[in-house]
Structure of Gram-positive cocci surface proteins LPxTG domain-containing protein:
Amino acid sequence: MAALATAAGALPAHADSSRASFTVTASARTLVAPAADGDGGFSDLLVSFAADDGSSALAGVKVAVDGRQLARLAELRLPAPCTFTDAEHLQALCAPGDFAGGGGHLTLGVRAARGAPAGAAGTILFTVTATNATVNRASGRDVTEVRVGEGPQLSVAQLPVLTRTKPGATATLATGLTNQGDREAHGVLLWFRIPERYAPAAAFGDFGNCRYPDRAAGLVLCRFDDAVVRPGEVLRPSVLVALVAGDDPRDGRFEYGADLAGGPTDRGLTAAQGAGRPGTGAPLTLTAGPAGAFGSEAAFTYLETGRPYALSAVAGDVVGVQGATVPATFALRNDGDAPAAVHGGRTADGDPAGLLVSFPTGVRIAGAPADCAERPAEPTVYLCAQTRTLASGEFQAYTFQVLLADPLDRAPGRASVEGQALAGAALFTVTSGAAPAPTTVRSHTAAPGPALRAVAPAAEETGPEPSAPPAIAVTAAAPVPSPTSQASLGAGLAETGGGTSGLSLAATGGLAVGLGLGLIGMAARRHWAGSRG
């Protein structure tokens, strides 16, 4: 029984028993500079594909590119594994092949066609397939908007998808910006988001025109109020961005971007940062730099440390009657072989490190654990803080009271580790059906074992046989406290999978509950599989 439950739990909730699932993520938007004075440079079109369990290999990957909406607006440039399939060179087929370690990415180029008017926009569609996996259509994005810059349009140099570092090492990142619009940009804001357990190197950490967070990680804002960026001009900071990894770094995501001074990003980030700490040194300046891959107002790279611990999410399917409230337990688990410490418990965004749980539409939260806080998102998303050091194999569990407000049939949800993108994510489903018709129990109902504690009371007898003993009620237990061993968590998630307040034991099926219905235990991986766009 335990082996069957483990085997079932290794699969994504919406996949069949023989095929893994993967998520496709394309950049939401790419800017291209007008090409009125000849051919402009190419911007990046990035599409990534990553196994939902973070580690399954993807075989025979193919990417069909459909850019027919870009006719007379843009031109495409293909990498080596791609060939055009039409005379207009707007459709292509790419066959990058096999990807071990969870997935990969593909980068195409796009530039404005001659005569394309500023402000014009179209979309490009990516259709990704694999011979051994199915696409998860409940998440990700497969369409990118391509827009010709109109007015001043700042975009930044793209970064490598992955930057490897190690404790105490310094990672140097080549940043820069350009104006892909058709008018001059007056006044520039450059922002940098430093991940937790990293700090700006001394050469980058004390400029008079920058404001820094009160702690090492967080948001750095640098202003160039007198800067003028002409269309097509490329500028680079006078000092390279350098990040120093601490003694106990985790994999993190460094981000940076540009905005016009006083623009919406400037206003939003200034309000988010608060006062900050002003630098005391000479100002950072912008100098002319070489052309590069531009195309978006922001860019990022994943910093991989190779540390021997890895956090992963654990989740189980939720099943019950529409209108009922059922318990649902999720957990944050350390799958590595070294302790995962809290270290102040804050990420670069100012949020506690921990577990993100995204519930599908149609679910309401009647009760949340004390360590979990709702985020402003649609559908419902909670961030559950990691509040203690987790030893190897140890976990911290969180039990929600979930109101099944709408009828749902395996509606997908996701539990993931804050700051880890797809690595260590776990999928779950929520199903709520109509209440079953009353049944007559004409046999003895056995007392429940540990795996049946969350099953609702069995239906009462309406006419027992004279020889039958009285039925024994099965009572729903209160949510279990946060367990600390794999065995106790398995029981807790078995309860989550079988929690069916108002549903009879006969309708639920004791076998399904005993197996821990839909237990998902996905191993985290240490290699980042692709961009989240």
